[in-house]
Amino acid sequence: LVKSFLLSEGTAGRKMDLTSADDIDGPASVRHSQAETSKQIDDLMKFAASKTHRKAWDASAMLSTDQQELIADLGKICSKRPWANKKWETEVVKDRVTTDDWYSGGISQLFLRLADATREDEKEDSEELVEVHAHHKRMRAVLSLCDEILGKLDSVEGALQGLQSEHDLVVEKTSTLHVECEKLLADKVELEKLASAIETKLQIYDELESVQRQLSQPKVDVSSSNFEKVLNSIDDAVGQLSVNNNFADTSSYLNRFKQAQAKALGMVRAYVTATLQTATEKVLQHLKDSNGQANAGDQGEGSVLNGDVDSSQSSTRGDVELALAAYVQYQSVAQGVRDVLEKISSRISWGKEYYTLLIDLQDVYFQQRRSLLQDTVKSKISAALRNGDGDLGQIARAGCAYLCDVCHREYKLHQRFFPPIEESVGLEALMGPMCDLLVDALRPLYLKVVDIDILCSLASLLKGEILEDQIELRGASLAAMSPCVGMILHEVQERLIFRAQIFIRDDIQAYKPSKDDLDYPAKFGNRSSDGLTSNGPNFWFPTLPRTLACLAQLYRTVEKKIFEGIAQEAVQACTESLLAACRALEKTRGRMEANLFLVMHLLKLREQIVPFDIDFSSTEVELDFTDTRGALSRLLKSRSSIFSLSTDNALLHLARAQPKIYHTQKNIKKQLERELKLSCEALIHLIASQVADPLVAWVRKADALAHSAGGNSSLRLHAFAQPDQVQQLLQSLKVNVSKFCTETQGSMELYLPNPQTRSVLINPIKANILEA
Questions:
Q1: DSSP state, 78?
Q2: Burial level of 416, CB count in 10 A (0-12/13-18/19+)?
Q3: N-terminal to C-terminal alpha carbon distance within the chain
Q4: Residues with Cβ < 8 Å from 631, sequence gap 6 or more?
Q5: For an engineered disulfide with 596, which of 22, 572, 738, 751 has Cβ 3.0 to 4.6 Å away?
Q6: What is the three-class DSSP state of 15?
Q7: Could you give the CA distance from residue 672 to residue 600 in angstroms, rounded to a whole number?
């Protein structure tokens, strides 16, 4: 079958490489299916065709039906029998099995016989296959080399994987070791910090002995840097021991450090005090020597230091020398003291002991300065009292000027000694006692003054010339003088307010007018010859100019709220006095003169209070105890019901019966305008009635007669309607009108010289006359 198959296919399979049989054979017994066998044979045929350079259609020609059946049978046989081994091939070649034994020799023999059949043809084409075999041999060598390389690469890869695993293990162990090292290093740093902190805290205990030893030296220079280091050590120790109070023996060491601190501060206090006392003694000694030389051994003359002033010349010379020596000597030691005090001032935040020390040293400084200045200030104020001759303004001006000069110089000197201290009283403690000397000298004088003009001038001097023009303008250097001058001003204002209230009560509200005060209109008799008008205060009722003068003086000297209360009281009192004067004038001069008098003065009062620009309104509070009084009476009457538990308990009613509070709004200016309006209306009605009353009476009588007779009675039958009576009525009306045009308007010109004011009154009068 195979032979017929090969013959039908030609020589397609002759040139198949025998080595392909080596590729097909294998050591294992493998059984293949029919389809796989057919595919292998087709591949073999195609390979043989390609090697012998056959045409393509030869290799890809379609098999016939018989050929396909043969291939199927061949596949069945091959599926049942194993492939031949190499040893079989050798044996078959040796034995040279014949063609008849193809079927019994297996597929190996088939291929051997196929190779033997085609060997002759191969010899013909051997020359063409030499290069192919050589290339194949080289390729197999390369393949072997590649397999060897692959094997080595596999071994290298395995070695590398082993190395990588070992490397990963080493990295893991190294990372763990690194973490442990970092942790150990962090623990070391923490332990070092802890050891350092412990050492620092324990160092405090070791420094106590060193601090005590330095403070126990015979001479300690408080201005040196070593003393500052001692203070630093003490402050640090006190601060840390105060925070870490749970340490062993903390309270004991804290107390010992505070004792050392108190000792150090005591040294500073002693140093500054001794320096200031020495400077004071030098000043006094210098002044004593100067006085001894000037007096030439005369012990009878007074000394500035003991306050006796027998000669103004010697007093002035002594004051100048004392001031010069006091400031020069103190300035020479100021820098050394300030250096020490600046160290103390920078430690105020460490404890209140340093602040207390600064305040104490400042008091010592003020005490030393007062011992030098107080007698001089007293002599200056005494000289001002002698030279003032009772003039309060001159005395206050001289005394305040001298104290301001002293305060300014003391402020500059104080800045040389002390650094700025918060919440310190400043120079008030120094200037206060010296200012009290001026207050004690002035107080008896202004308490005796009853004249408002003198008190107002003194208050204006203190407020304007001294407080505003000197103290406030010069700022901090004179700030210590402000309380003193303010106290004097406050006392003067209190005295002024008291005297103003007495003046309003006695000279305005309770004023008793004389005949000359109510001699209107004769008071205007010489106004044309004197060149005066009723606009001048000389023609006014005395209470009006007094009121205006009092308000004008108080307006700039007291606080606005106080002035508003006084102004309300003064205007009300003046209005009441004018109303009383109007009533008194009406009794002597008649209603016409009284009304003109009242209108003129009320107009002047309203006009003159406008520039003050204040609020004339006030709220009065009144308490109504009516319900309380009733409940109290009930309690006294029914004492037995005090302890009853019912709602009829008298104590319960008394507790509920609280006094009622009433607030009443009062405006003095509106009351003044209301009185002015009423007086103007009364004047208009009076003048109109005087002119038109006869005619109005006649008309009313005629109307009454007409209504009573029912309109049937004639006026001619009555006597009042006779022609002569009517003529007489018209004549009297003409006389009244003429009198109004001459006498009444002339009187109005006397009281009201302003034409516009008169026209405001005359026009309504004319209208009322025409209406009548």
A1: H
A2: middle
A3: 173
A4: 650, 653, 654, 656, 657
A5: 751
A6: coil
A7: 13
DSSP state of 16: -
With b meaning 16 or more CB within 10 Å and e meaning fewer, what string describes 48-66?
Answer: bbebbebeeebbeeebeee
459 with 554: CB under 8 angstroms? no
SS3 665: strand
Cα 17 from Cα 122, distance rounded (Å):
10
For residue 557, the Cα-to-chain-centroid distance in whole angstroms is 35
Cβ 764 vs Cβ 684: under 8 Å: yes
Q: What are phi and psi of 550, to 5 degrees?
A: -65, -45
Cα 38 to Cα 68: distance, rounded to the nearest angstrom = 9
Q: Is 300 helix (H, G, I), strand (E, B) or coil?
A: coil
Give the pTM: 0.62
Whether the Cβ atoms of residue 77 and residue 44 lie closer than 8 Å to each other: no
Q: How far apart are CA 676 and CA 654, in angstroms?
A: 47
Amino acid at the residue 436: D
- What is the DSSP secondary structure assignment for residue 666, as one 8-state letter? E
CA distances from 320 to 216, 309, 314, 643 (A): 45, 14, 10, 82
What is d(CA 394, CA 506) in angstroms, rounded to the nearest whole number? 30
Q: Which amino acid is at 348?
A: I
**Distance between CA atoms of 92 and 112, rounded to whole angstroms?**
8
Residue holding tokens 């404890």?
Answer: 351
Which residues, including other chains, have CB under 8 Å from residue 336's CB and lie 6 or more apart? 223, 275
Report the 3 state secondary structure along 461-499.
Answer: HHHHHHHHHHHHHHHHHHHHHHHHHHHHHHHHHHHHHHH
φ and ψ of 300, to 5 deg: -85, -20
Q: Interior CA angle at 190 toward 186 and 195, to 5°?
A: 145
- Of 694, 698, 696, the residue nearest 720 (C-alpha): 698
Looking at residue 581, its amino acid is A
What 8-state DSSP symbol labels residue 102? Answer: H
The pLDDT averaged over each successive group of 10 residues in the chain (772 residues) is: 41 39 39 52 54 45 73 71 47 46 55 66 63 83 90 92 92 92 92 84 77 84 86 84 76 85 90 91 80 52 40 53 76 89 86 88 91 87 87 90 90 88 75 90 90 91 88 86 90 92 91 86 62 66 91 88 89 91 88 88 89 74 73 69 64 70 74 88 81 67 63 60 66 69 76 83 76 64
User: Do 715 and 702 touch, CB atoms closer than 8 A?
Assistant: yes
Query: Half-sphere exposure (CA, 13 Å, Cβ side) for 121?
Result: 16
Q: List CB contacts of 59: < 8 A, sequence separation 6 or more.
A: 12, 45, 46, 49, 50
Residue 765: exposure state from Cβ atoms within 10 A (0-12, 13-18, ≥19): buried
Residue 443 tokens read as 């107080």
Tokens read off for 549: 């003068």
Alpha helices of 244-311 — where are they, by DSSP H? Answer: 250-295
Q: In angstroms, rounded to a whole number, what is the distance separating the alpha carbons of residues 669 and 572?
A: 9
- Provide the 10 A C-beta neighbour count for residue 493: 21
Q: Can you read off the two tokens belonging to residue 26?
A: 């294998």
SS (H, E, C) 600-657: HHHHHHHHHHHHHCCCCEEEEEEEECHHHHHHHHHHHHCHHHHHCCCCCCHHHHHHHC
Task: List, in sequence order, the alpha helices (H) in 312-426.
Answer: 312-345, 352-388, 392-417
Yes or no: say if 519 and 597 are a contact pair by the CB < 8 Å rule.
Answer: no
